[in-house]
Prior knowledge:
This protein has 215 residues and is mostly beta strands. The chain is 5% helix and 41% strand. The protein contains two helices and 16 strands.
Amino acid sequence: MALHTKKTFQTGLLSAIATGLVAGFGLMAKADTAAAHCDLYAPGEDYAYLSSNCTFSQRQGYIGIQLQANGVRYEFDPIGDQPGNYIDQHGNPVYRQAGLGDAGNIFEFVDGSHLYLYWDSSSSYGSTSSASGDRVGTLVAHERGSQINLRSEPTIYSRALGYGLAGDQIDILNCEQDTDTATSDLNWCRVQFLESGAIGWIRSDFIIFPSDGRL
């Protein structure tokens, strides 16, 4: 499962992700390797076509980013006197952009595609969940191929952090009553995707629950 995450994260929310982690790109120069989460966006797109846990390494200005989902590695070598200018392993220019503050970094490729890198944490993107002893459910779609929104709060009016697809497995953390409609008999459940570790809220009618008699 590759969670497709919107590019339009609020900087305020992302600042919370950075709490307790390495603050700022400059400080990362002192580190060898750090855990992170990477989202890849095609040119002009607001949804990631690939979302993966990744590792970030930097030494003397040279950057390496390794994606867990597909094994692809990016190598960025600094060029010129201006910070943030690189060439990749294919000799193409890469530019580091502002926008995430202390929460991570954005890299723009020559074709207009982007790599968003967020320092790892247990808030929006955690480490991959262990299924041992957890309540594992499966996402179900009402229409073939439809996307199931992962939301920031237990309501359809909250921001969509991304989406899953039918068949994705999730760890069900907790559930609460749906309040969008007064007569609703549905629930919203806070879930964590087993593969990506992404956490958010999904409504109960999109979840096949384990047969343990509990929500």
